Amino acid sequence: MVAAHAISPVAPVTKSPQGSDVDFLPLLGTDYVEFYVGNARQAAYFYRVAMGMSLVAYSGPETGQHDQASYVLQQGKVRFVFSTPLRNSSPMAWHIHRHGDGVHAIALQVDDARKSWFETTRRGAKSVMEPTTCSDENGVVVLASIAAYGDTVHTFVERKNYSGAFLPSYKAVNIDPLARPTGLQHIDHMVANVGWHEMDRWVDFYASVMGFNLYQHFDEKDISTEYSALMSKVMANHNGYVKFPINEPAEGRKKSQVEEYLDFYNGPGVQHIALATCDILNTVKTMRNQGIEFLHVPHTYYTDLQSRVGKIDEPISELEDLGILVDRDDEGYMLQIFTRPVEDRPTLFFEIIQRKGSRSFGKGNFKALFEAIEREQMARGNL
Ligand code: FE2
What we know:
By secondary structure, the protein is of the alpha+beta class. Helices cover 23% and strands 34% of the residues. It has helices at residues 40-49, 91-99, 113-121, 199-209, 257-265, 280-289, 300-303, 305-309, 316-322, 366-380, and strands at 29-36, 54-59, 68-75, 78-85, 102-109, 127-136, 139-147, 153-162, 171-172, 184-193, 213-218, 229-236, 243-250, 269-277, 325-329, 332-338, 349-356. The longest helix is centred in the last third of the chain and has 15 residues, at 366-380. Residues 1-19 have low confidence and may be disordered. Residues 3, 189, 191, 272, 274, 351 line the site of fe (ii) ion.
């Protein structure tokens, strides 16, 4: 969901279902996000030239991988992998047929992939890949995967004994002449859209299977417009490095953005990825110049902005030119903006966020954002 989640960098440690304060799934952060796409070479071009990421590794027929090609892109700590099948018999081809281009794997870096797989599967996670060791001249990596919502998986990546560019079978790319950096630093949060009345089921999954804590929740009273509504709960792991807001649709007069997503993605999946920058004005200017399209925010949003958020460092006229939103809580303020869906299906989009003290998302922007999305839904004939 758009902006409807409070984030704190340090999640409170609560007792696990076993009654222990020990984090049974310590996460070092997001290792990578893997997208399954119809044409990885062209998708990678977009993310390099428009989003500003650098090609750092490649795997394909030339490296001995004969059934797929994968491009690993990086900027700051954000690492995306774009993979495409080379033959129709691949399960990857089925994923693309069903969902269009989208996120398949949210990979989490861990110290011990075997233990992560064991602790989560014994709490009820469905195994997708048992712990598997791969190695090359740069060392050893252990990978294991469990199922999450829809066809999305979580892959545990243990790379403490590996010094290569990405994973064994990938060849390093040292210089990317195409990349045009935009100042993106790390993933702030990744949002799931799940089906009607499924939010609590997935909240329970993250709590009991992965040891996450509930951060904050929003109901249809917080996130609704004249036409539609959604509900959202934010789950965060123990150290707060990984945050997953989970949205479900709520009853409204018309079809909500979550329903539109579910229709076009054919089920639950990743709705948006929020990427942090420390200079949102420059990041957004650069991205816009490089072809990224953002949601339009009406002039009226800015007329009373100063009185709502108080003194801020950025000139309001510049924020308005770029369409950047601002919200304040008692700890500070934050700036955010949302891209239009980055594919033809109205599914995945990105958020660019800069935090200046604020650890929450506030509610001030929900209505304006929701209405901006609805204008686009209307234009697509889906509202
Ligand atoms: Fe967000």
